[in-house]
Amino acid sequence: MRHATAEGAGRIVGHKNVPLSPRGREELGWIGEKCLRHPVRAIYCSDLRRARETAEAIARHFGLPVEIRAELREIHFGEWEGLTWNQIRRRHPRLAAQWMERFPLQPIPGGEPLRDFQRRIALAVGDIIAANAGRCVLVVTHAGVIRFTLGRALGLPARRVFQLVQDPGAMNIIDYAPDSAFVRCLNG
């Protein structure tokens, strides 16, 4: 699940530790109700505040603790953190064009390399799956983490994952079997 709407929506916040916005706090009620339709037995989340606040609100509905995992953080966008895409295009027009053309190979200055990000989240998700075989688990994290996790489950190349929309509070359901994954719900 993607966290509720955070402060700075419309900006690239990546590793910035922003809280939920007033709108995001209002969303927590329907997000919690949506989760109650599922037999959640464990809750994990990123260590960033927006994900923690969302996960903690959901956990109260279930009476469960939240296990915080820094590995579930969004990708670090380096010098682009805190900027809108229009600001990036104005300040770094050549680099922004290269990034769009060469994604996922073009790095962002000071940012986390994409292959490191992909490896980090694949290991974190793999550990959660291994520790919870046969159980319904909720992972509250960020759009990039979810896109790449869904992309991996669907066999999509990295270049295509940004076509997977992830709204605030979006729920995605993936059933994992020993050698495969089945996507039941996308951006629900």
What does this protein look like?
It is a single chain. It is built from 6 helices and 5 strands. With 188 residues, the protein is of the alpha/beta class. The protein has a single domain, classed as Rossmann fold (3-Layer(aba) Sandwich), CATH 3.40.50.1240. The strands form 2 sheets. A 3-stranded parallel sheet has the order 2-1-3, with helices on one face. Strands 4-5 form a two-stranded antiparallel ribbon. α2 links the parallel β1 and β2. α1 packs parallel to α2 and α3 crosses α4. The longest helix has 18 residues.
Give a short overview.
The protein is of the alpha/beta class and 188 residues long. Helices cover 40% and strands 13% of the residues. It has helices at residues 22-35, 49-62, 85-91, 93-102, 114-131, 143-154, and strands at 40-45, 66-68, 136-140, 173-177, 180-185.
Biggest sheet: strand arrangement: 2-1-3
Number of domains: 1
User: Using DSSP, what is the number of strands?
Assistant: 5
Order of helix and strand elements from N to C terminus: HEHEHHHEHEE
Q: What value does the Rg take, in angstroms?
A: 16 Å
Q: Report the CATH C-level class.
A: Alpha Beta
Looking at the overall shape, the CATH architecture is: 3-Layer(aba) Sandwich
Strand content: 5-15%
- Percent of residues in helical segments? 25-40%
* Distance between the first and last residues' Cα: 9 Å
Q: Give the name of the CATH superfamily.
A: Phosphoglycerate mutase-like
Shape: globular
- What is the CATH topology descriptor? Rossmann fold
> Biggest sheet, open or closed, and with what strands and sense?
3 strands, parallel
Structural class: alpha/beta
Mean pLDDT: 96
